Amino acid sequence: MTLSALTERKSIVSAVQSLREGLTAETTTFDRNIGFHGGSVAGKVHWRREDGYWFYLKYVQSNNRYWCCYGCQDPNVDRNLGITVEMNILREGYSRRLGGALAADEAGSIYLVHSGKVGGGRAGIGKSKFLNYALGAEIHPVRWPDGIVTDMILVAGIGEERLPQQIANYVQTARDFKESIDPQKGGVATGGSKPTYFPEFEGIRKKYSIRTAIQGVCDHGTVVRFLKQDLDHRGNKAHNDQHRDLYLTDTKGHMTTLFEVKTDYGLSTIYEGIGQLLFNCARESGHHNRVLVLPKFTSREIKRCISKTGVNLLEYGWKGKTPVFYELEPLMTNAGK
């Protein structure tokens, strides 16, 4: 299903107002200088302390756009702020030169999308490398009024309860990408050929049908990130790559445990997760602890069937905005037994 770019002024103004309202709640306002390539501007920024970013949103009449910029510096500490990423939106009409846009599905639900264009002013920072870095980014086709279709990243659902966190995930992914650039090589510093970990982009997952719009947000990257933290705190070092959500290795670098994270427990999702675990483990030698990560409340019958495949199940729930993993310690203790 292809999304359609919003171009009508009334729809865009309404959506931006909803975006502003969703971001402004629970913020602190500061008068700060916002720096950009070639200058700076003074303005009121909103600081989302819990989510770790500030934002500045203003309509600029001279170029008919909303200037939407985001950064990670704490305005309590810094008076001069640098922009991490801009997701500017044209107020009326369309322009693919801007990084940001609004797009709607067939049911009329609206989403903030971004081209992946991340500026930085130095070698190695650009759209193509950012897209390679942002593992797990939800890329979706967007159709423009002239019939051209381009791939855009789904960032957040306008009006969604978790919109501030969805945007936080994107801003922090952009920040981590910029910080990972090796200034000597102009590329992403990955530590050579050693296994590494890149934060998964935590955007929204699309669950489309003809009659319904996106059913909920995608917490995939959030779950992966917190599972990695939990594993690391237990003395493990978790890695990931384009094919594997998370995996652990022994002292020789051989994979010992593979995690596949899913954020719903539909049968097709479970089939996919089990298949990915079996296939990716088949590519490696040795014995592997295969772990399918699913939301809690998976049915008893499904649990029984998963167990018969030789795959271990790790369930998680939510405590506020934080995923909590149940019985992770026994699973790790019994790994390989």
Describe the structure.
The chain has two domains: 3-190, no CATH class; 221-333, Trna Endonuclease, Chain: A, domain 1 (3-Layer(aba) Sandwich), CATH 3.40.1350. It is built from seven helices and 19 strands. The chain has helices at 9-24, 127-133, 163-180, 220-233, 267-282, 300-308, 328-333, and strands at residues 3-5, 28-36, 39-48, 53-60, 65-71, 80-82, 85-86, 89-90, 100-104, 110-114, 139-143, 149-157, 181-182, 187-188, 246-249, 255-261, 289-295, 312-319, 322-326. The strands form four sheets. Strands 2, 3, 4, 5, 6, 7 and 8 form a seven-stranded mixed β-sheet that branches. A five-stranded mixed β-barrel has the order 1-9-10-12-11. Strands 15-16-17-18-19 form a five-stranded mixed β-sheet. The radius of gyration is 21 Å and the shape is globular. It starts with a strand and ends with a helix. The relative contact order is 0.10.
List keywords for this structure.
337 residues, Trna Endonuclease, Chain: A, domain 1, single chain, alpha+beta, 2 domains, seven-stranded mixed beta sheet, five-stranded mixed β-barrel
Q: Stretches where pLDDT falls below 50 for ≥5 residues?
A: 189-193, 206-218
What is the H/E string? EHEEEEEEEEEHEEHEEHEEHEHEEH
- Number of helical stretches of at least 4 residues: 7
Measured as a percent range, the helix fraction is 25-40%
Overall morphology: globular
Q: How much of the residues is beta strand, in percent?
A: 25-35%
